[in-house]
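For this section, I looked closely at the sequence of one protein beside the tokens encoding its backbone, which the following lines show:
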Amino acid sequence: MTTSVPLPTPTVRPTRGPRITLTAWLADLTYTQQTISAETMPQAIGGLATCATTKLDFAHPIRVFKYPEALAAALEEDGPPDVIGFSHYIWNSHLSLAFAELVKKHFPATTVVFGGPHYPLRLPDQTEFWHERLAGKVDFYVDGEGEPAFADLLRTLNEVGRVDVRGHIAGVHCLADDGTLHAPPPRLRIHDLSSVPSPYLSGLMDEFFDGKLVPTVQTNRGCPFKCTFCQEGTQYFQRVAKKHEQQIRDELHYIGRRMKPLLEAGSARNELLITDSNFGMFPEDQETCRVIAECQQLYGWPRVVNVTTGKNQRDRVLSAVAQVPGAISLSGAVQSLDPDVLRRISRSNIDGGKLMEIALAAADAGAGTYSEVILALPGDSKAKHLGTLRQLVDAGFDRLNMFQLTLLPGSEMSTETYRHEHGLVTKWRVMPRCYGSYTVLGEDLRAAELDEVCVTVPDMPYEDYRECRVMDLLLASLYNGDVFAALLAILRAHQISPMSWLERARSLAHGPALTAVLKEFEAETDEQLWDVREELLSYATENIDQYVDGHLGNNLLYTYRTRIISEALEDTADLAARACLAVLRDVGVGLGGGTLTEALVREAADYHRLTLSEIFRTDPPDVLRQRARFDLDTLVAAARRRENIRDPRRFQLTEAGVREFVLNASQRRTLSTYLGQFGTTPWGVGRLLTKVRLPDIVRMVRMSPGPGTPPAPAGTGSSTT
């Protein structure tokens, strides 16, 4: 029996500002048809609303929207508002613009305001951006932090017309009738984030506790680093503004009370997203983690905290996340470990060595680890990319997330000067899950989001870029999540880099099923990339149904990782074993003639094949079995304790047994839920793997004694190495 926890009463600060008779709406839209693409609660625009409410006295409360369907219905039934603001990010740019275009068409008197990081840095680029994308759809764009600027804009619009506003509010840009751009510089940064009242504590987020969206908070804003590929790498965001501890505490407990009944009903994901850029790096983050631990005890939430941990201050980061064991994975987002690449992208002030040490200290903190690597950065090459992967797997990171380099309009890297200096060659692709069609004001609205990715730099021709993508796929499929943990333990026991194993797996002959999957991966890598943005945008909007149905526009690494598991698992396990034996021979381990080491490797590869076997079927077999000669669980556990596991005799069972591989009730429920929602196609399961960690759904293993043991595999002997 659970104890009910009363929900706090929402609080609203009194206002003393001028009376505002305008109606104002705010929308942070996300695609919803294939799946909810941006699953975060709209707390950022909620902050715009609460900040404005503290400065102004609204006759009509500001309304906040997340789902396109809800905004479309409101425009039909309640609209139009006097002012409507749209968040403008890489994942909803065209969706927001499509809505804005229809609003201006049907309600030309409505003022349309945009804001967000998807906006160029330089005045010439901003002017071109307006003429190519915003003109006729958007009246004003807020450059920089939006909370005080949006409040000032509403106050001024309430007093004068749109024309009289032009050029008079810091950070509020607009086009003049003659096509010139009024672009006053952004206003000064907010010093104290607590000056923006919490949209949770005001009750503004209550309607979004629907079980579909993830609660999202920000405890600090800004980044002291200068990475040229990041919008926060600009000078404007160098100073870090922080929120008071009490407001963070109140927010988290408010969210926890709201989440508790949803979790008890099984209708929500048990997660929290913190949008800080370097969580754990600041002393205040220690207290935030203590509050999260309190919430876990009181509400059973959050089980998982998604956040990017700090790039420096390793000990402080480890100390913070140790307070919520297992909830936060430590990130070592190196992007590259090559000194020249790091210099070119202005990451020389980030201590790569300290990032690498995170992996070794993570076990003591009770946390998993992951790192991030970006392909085709300035100065990159095939050798540098593979070298970075090697250093990271050797450091022991659990998972590597490998990304293509996206040029964001609000980053230094996107400027023409930077592109030319570093020889960046780019193409366009449709962003996974970011497409859809809606009926708005009686018209068909179709939209898809594109991102511009770098595919060639001077020392990385396109052929090398594509080969690196194949290696990234093999690493994701064979290394991430410890899917071949016993093989990795054997390799590391003989001081063999897992990257040597992966490179040998790439060079060896592949079975027919795996060959076919890899060939199609390379072909689709080519097909997703377009030279001309306008041509791809036209094609995507004309073929939205193909994208929504999953035939186009998928995340290739996730989709083809799924295909490898579903369609080529036997080939993959065989390849993993053969590559492991090959690199063991390279270092002089005696193999052949039925040695124990060879038997151990082959049993381990088959063991992992069976843990993954047929888990993405709606009616998977109840039990799979394997003859057991070695205690593989003890081997992996000993390796994690860094014990010497070279001698296979240590793990040889005195009597052969039978392993049984089963899916427990919880795993079956999870798989049934997601497979029912997404389907069992490769792209459907690929989406599943964006929600569920593969190690959490592999088959559980139990041992039974020897009688009834199936016959030993052919060629298995009993001699030692």
